[in-house]
Amino acid sequence: MKTQEEVNGIVTLTKEGEELISHSSLYNEGLRPTTKAEHSWTAYNFASLWIGMSICLPTYAMAAGLISLGMSWWQAILTIILGNCIVLIPILLNSHAGTKFGIPYPVFARLWFGSKGAHIPAVARGLIGAGWFGINCWFGGAAIDTLLMSMSDWASVPGHLWISFFGFWLLNVWVAYRGPETIKKMEAWAAPILIIMSLALLVWALTKAGGWGPMLSAPSKFTSIGEFLQVFFPALTGAIAFWATMALNIPDFCRYAKSQKAQIVGQSSSLPTTMGFFSFIGVAVASATVVIYGEALWDPAAVLAKFSPFAIFLGTIGIVLATLTTNVAANIVAPARAVENLAPRRLSYEAGAIIAGVVSLLMQPWYILENFSNYIFLWLGTYGALLGPIDGIAIADYWLVRKRRIHLVELYKHNGMYAYKTGFNVRAIWAMLIGIAIPFISKFIPGLHLIWDNAWTVGLLISLAIYTWMMKNDASILSQKEYDQITSQAQESRAS
């Protein structure tokens, strides 16, 4: 029986396939495969998604952090661009699965970890997403607080910073609660506004400073290549880890892609360029403030506070937009889906969004942002070491083990081929643990710290190799003949 249909590289369930899984406890409206009509996201939608997510205060702060650690402006920007070019590879590889089969990240994870084991990578990604959600709310709330103080006597209000933070947190949770389609629409119109406002800030800085100021002449603080590499490798891991979360749950968005071409062109043209562009603006503006105000102002809100009330008002809108477009897309969808996947018949995406918002408070973003070392080395570096192995397993399973052949109906069965007898794929768990353990142990062995500094990359490669070897000839792998028996191939037309 044909339970799925493939047209132009997009696989959807047939009516027979839908009937087989519609009553499963692993199935609900948020976790089911997308329909043909829902594959509507164009290259512009993906480009605007990444522009909206990349233009944010943490991007601005990351460039500042690298310079505070001793890098010159061009070393910091190139490190960020290189990191994003590297993380773009797993993003595109995992995007293919989401686009072709229309499944969200927790369902995709059932392939490699099992029907029950999928909670391990889903919750791991969800917790980190919740942490980022809190970080962005703290950034945005603190910026709004600074701007309100510059416009009124807001500083005299008891607990004014916390009021700003919780108010902004509530706004983010409310927008996230409204779902992915609302996110798509918001990103589409916010992206061009954010680009214009970023350019306006850069033009202001150059005009007021009378040129590039001290930026181009500020040297690196490192006196040798060895000193530079000691900071470069963990900084590169931090730059990669910045979007390592999205490398995992990108199927949550690509399941709506119109075609593979749409998601590849949209993402490749926007992620590295926007991250490099906005990081450069952060460096340029901060350097210009040395000339204008006699000190480097790395906080964009502190810069805006020196403007006229009308400019402050516009700048506040920009900061709110920049933080919202990042937060609700990059940081709340994954934890909301992870919560939903825990009990698909009892929990909805909306409930997951609220729970994720509460968890973000418990992770204390104000501590993570206490200094740049916490932010770049503790936060980015540590979770990069956790997510690299999971990324490796995802890529190995789809591309090397299954060769892009999935039985959609079996993903929604407790005792199906992807349940691995106990609901857990023990081989995936071992591959993940080994990929995490080797870099972590290396952190404490003299001479091997370089492995920890590159924990995301090393962990990804180790887990990818181990998982591919351990899954050789597994019973859950579909042959081409078996795939053809369940998949009808409709006459292809030219994909738009």
Layout of helices and strands:
Layout: E1 4-7, E2 10-13, H1 15-21, H2 43-54, H3 57-68, H4 73-101, H5 105-113, H6 119-151, H7 160-177, H8 180-209, H9 225-241, H10 244-249, H11 251-254, H12 260-268, H13 271-293, H14 300-304, H15 309-331, H16 333-342, H17 349-362, H18 365-368, H19 372-401, H20 426-442, H21 449-453, H22 455-470, H23 480-486, E3 487-489
Number of DSSP strand runs: 3
Terminal Cα span: 30 Å
Number of helices: 23
CATH architecture annotation: Orthogonal Bundle
Total of domains: 1
Please give the share of residues in helix: 55-70%
CATH fold annotation: Hydantoin permease
Elements, N to C (H/E): EEHHHHHHHHHHHHHHHHHHHHHHHE
Q: What best-fitting shape do the alpha-carbon axes yield?
A: globular
Mean pLDDT, as a whole number?
88
Read across the widest sheet, the strand sequence of neighbours is: 2-1-3
Poorly predicted residue ranges: none
CATH top level class name: Mainly Alpha
Q: What's the oligomerization state?
A: single chain
What class, by secondary structure content?
A: mainly alpha
> Whole-number radius of gyration?
23 Å
CATH superfamily: Hydantoin permease
Largest sheet: 3 strands, mixed
Binned strand content: under 5%
Membrane topology: Multi-pass membrane protein
Pfam families: Transp_cyt_pur
Keywords: Membrane, Transmembrane, Transmembrane helix
Protein name: Nitrate reductase
